[in-house]
Amino acid sequence: MAAQIPTPSSAGVSDRMSRQRRRDTTPEVAIRKLLHARGFRFRVTMPVPGMPRRSIDIAFTRARVAVFVDGCFWHVCPVHRTSPAANSDWWSKKLATNQERDVATNEHLRDLGWRVVRIWEHEDPNEAADRIAATVRGEALPDEI
């Protein structure tokens, strides 16, 4: 049984969290536009093979490259991590679970022969697109998480 979601600390917090995008975030769209302008073609929000309820943000199916554009809060960025004061125990467990899920997804995809690239939302979109393009062309190894 899933853990009970705590009561939001305020109506404003509840409203803000409910509006968080799961796909087509500003950083993700910026990277996709750059890749498309460079001639790359890809699938968007492709299901992870064999893993229900998980999806690849940008998938290069022929090259078998999976790109994830991770939000700093939700995936615990080492540069921008924050620890919410309200409901801190619940958030700590939630964010740790997100990190564990990311690692499991990476391992699963690598076992299937995919290369995985993780991009943080704060990264420069041009630099991220360069890294992705090099990985798709086989010129660079993707970053490890």
Q: Biggest sheet, in brief?
A: 4 strands, mixed
Shape: globular
Strand-residue proportion:
15-25%
H/E series? HHEEEHEH
CATH topology: Endonuclease, Chain A
Report the CATH C-level class: Alpha Beta
How is the largest sheet built, in terms of strand order?
1-2-3-4
Distance between the termini: 29 Å
Give helix % range. 25-40%
Query: Structural class, please?
Result: alpha+beta
Reported CATH architecture:
3-Layer(aba) Sandwich
Gyration radius, to the nearest Å? 16 Å
Counted beta strands: 4
**Quaternary status of these chains?**
single chain
Helical stretch count? 4
Number of self-contained structural domains: 1
- The whole-number mean of residue pLDDT values reads 87
- The CATH superfamily turns out to be VSR Endonuclease
Low-pLDDT residue intervals, each spanning 5 or more residues = none
Short description:
Helices cover 39% and strands 16% of the residues. The chain is an alpha+beta fold. It has one domain (21-136): VSR Endonuclease (Endonuclease, Chain A), CATH 3.40.960.10.
Q: What this model shows, in words?
A:
The protein is of the alpha+beta class and 145 residues long. The protein has four helices and four strands, in the order H-H-E-E-E-H-E-H. It has helices spanning 11-18, 26-37, 88-111, 125-136; strands at residues 43-47, 55-60, 65-70, 115-120. The protein has a four-stranded mixed β-sheet, with helices on both faces. Helix 3 (88-111) links the parallel strand 3 (65-70) and strand 4. Helix 2 crosses helix 4 (125-136). The radius of gyration is 16 Å and the shape is globular. It starts with 10 loop residues before the first helix and ends in a 9-residue tail after the last helix.
